[in-house]
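Pipeline run #58 for the internal structure catalog. This entry was flagged by the ingest filter as a single-chain record with no existing model, so it goes straight to prediction. Upstream metadata was stripped on purpose; only the residue string is passed forward. Reviewer on rotation: M.T. Logging verbosity set to normal.
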Amino acid sequence: ISHKLNGQKILAREMARSQIDFEKGELYSYTKIKTTEAKYLSLNLFNSITIDTIATNKEASTLSLQVNLNYKKQQDYNFGLFTNRTTFDKYWNAGVEASYTHRNIFGAAQSFNPFVRFTLLDLSRFFETNKQELEYQAGISLSTPLLWTIDKSRVSSSAQFAFSYKRVIDNLWLSTVDLPFRFAIKLPDWTLFNNASLDLGFRRQIPTNYNEAWNESLRGAKTEKDTLNVLRKFIPFSDFNSFVNKENPLLTSTIFSFGINGDSRNDIFSPSSGYFLSFLTDLAPFKVNKYTGASQFLRFQAFLSQYFSLSYQSILAYKMKFGHILTFDKENSITPYDLQFYAGGANSIRGWASRRLRFYGTDKYQYEASSETELIEDYIGSATILEGSVEYRYKVASTGVIGRVLKDVQFATFVDFGNAYNWYLLSDLPGNDDISIAKIVQGIALAAGVGVRYESPIGVIRADLGWKLYDPNSIYDPNITVRDGLGDVKIHIGLGHAF
């Protein structure tokens, strides 16, 4: 192994040799040469890797190979804007970040990354409802690309310590200390699944100024209706605040997660073929107590999307998503609001605004939604979700003057269906915790729309117009097109395709 350091820290000998996919005495394999190069590149330490044969006697039956590693800069200081999307819910976040990165701090390609950032959360929801969550965060992350191997499958690990300060409603702030650990394994490419992970999450999250925010909001109430609205605003956090005040807990949640996914997409940003399949299970196993937290539940999610290239210009895609939360201690357990399920929005059923769709159960309850109750909908989710979409995407041909101007533009039309079930606000009503095929079918909402996408340097920028076609909660006619026509359009702005 030859190292061209370029002033950088050398990769430890054992770590360097562990990337080699062939052994002495094996038959020469071009595939293993390329696999070895890919492993070195995945360490993010090298500008280039070449593996060459060394000249030998022409009559010799063996080849000597030399690995040439050309190092790149290992340390970076960064300050600038960033944008990202969450894995399952596809929430679009953006903000400002300052960070330092060392990609070989201990000599075995370990990455060390302290950071501070300010984030605007779920921007699509802000554009639709004018409701914005802010978060200030500081932390340190450490990761290693190779902790051990299991039958030639590589296990990586990462850990993070982070403190955040988040505004959720008006002047109410949550302070959070997170300590997550992750172990990830790369599975063979020929299998249906090619990645798996185990996460251990420890969190302490407390409302820092609940009483002060409550009193300040009450002082601004001028009428009895205003006072009722204040009470409604704080419903999502009242039980949580009571637990914190009563127990003064060491942790507020302890969650173990296992995920597995398969990805055969030809392009992760704008795929035209392949599939993405994912299963995720979150388990909070401990009884409610002051040491491990206020949550005891099992949460399951499944997601499938698939893409078909009909021609050079057109793509047909679909997605299916299902999730359910099983609460073990319904009297005492509190499911964190950011782990509950919400429907509606730019990446969900696009005939509704973000978090504004749920099935109430027409034979049991009619919920009169209004501007005064929107904050309840924003922070009280549901225990079950089902979503599906079919989308046709058409890319303008890159010929002629118009084609050259519109070569990065796509048009789309879509149909979305599904709903969120078992709303936690109605958990005391008989039968609300039940889930059955009949209930799911009864509660399916339907929407359709059109959109445009632009493939920019930062990713696909998307604008969609969505219309309700069927609302199972309607006390009039659930067929929206009969009652209201198509005047109730929802405009969605997002980063990346909906799926």
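catalog note: The chain is about 15% helix and 45% strand.
catalog note: The mean pLDDT is 88.
status: ready for reviewer M.T.
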